[in-house]
Amino acid sequence: MMAGGGVASAHDPLDVVQFTPDEMRAAVEAAADWGTYVAVHVYTGPGIRRAVDAGVQVIEHGHLAAEDDIRRMADSGVWLSTQPFVESDHSYSSPDSREKNRRVCQGVENTFAWAVEHGVNIAFGTDQGTVELPGNPAFPVPVNERALAEIADGTGGEFFEAATTDELTAIYTDIGSAVATEEARVLVGSWFSGRAMLLIAIAAALSLVFSNRLP
């Protein structure tokens, strides 16, 4: 769903919020009836907050979010599907689109930093995604699964795919089990005692070597 304005689109500013809360909740319920979930295209905080409150599970882009918006996503278990845009990635003939692209690119660094800081799950792209620019046919922008898997492997992470709610729930469960914590009482007195006796012995030996007496 388009929950906010786009960069390439000619008729909606980035700051607009699209779909009412009731409409968005209805979409979430309809998706759940089919065993799947809703992802929304949105850059700004107001659109993100409306989507999260409605039960949306994936925010696409989110480059103009505030830190509180990212924190809310983390608290609600919402995924962030975003991209490390730079201005040179795209070329727009429209001055409005160029300005919108500039604003979006300025938010990239903060978005990623806050997402990492607050533990938001980050995803990249969709299998059947396409981009349509005015006056041009749609062209596919599929996920580069091999590249993402290599990034995950090289950074000690793990690569996941999910097309349904059940698959996404299984991923959440897997991630939760990987980062679970366990409290345990451990007796450390003997450890410290042993190290202390060793240090005393070393000190005594050094004293005999250098002063011919014990400390």
Principal-axis shape: globular
CATH superfamily annotation of the largest domain: Metal-dependent hydrolases
- Total beta-strand segments: 6
Number of helices in the DSSP assignment: 8
Tell me, what is the CATH class of the largest domain?
Alpha Beta
Mean pLDDT equals 80
Q: H/E element string?
A: HEHEHEHHEEEHHH
Helical coverage, percent range: 40-55%
Q: How is the CATH topology of the largest domain named?
A: TIM Barrel
Number of self-contained structural domains: 2
General description of the model:
Strand 1, helix 2 and strand 2 form a beta-alpha-beta unit. The strands form 2 sheets. This protein has a 4-stranded parallel beta sheet. The termini are far apart. The chain has 8 helices and 6 strands. Helix 1 crosses helix 2, helix 2 runs parallel beside helix 3 and helix 3 runs parallel beside helix 5. The chain is an alpha/beta fold and about 220 residues long.
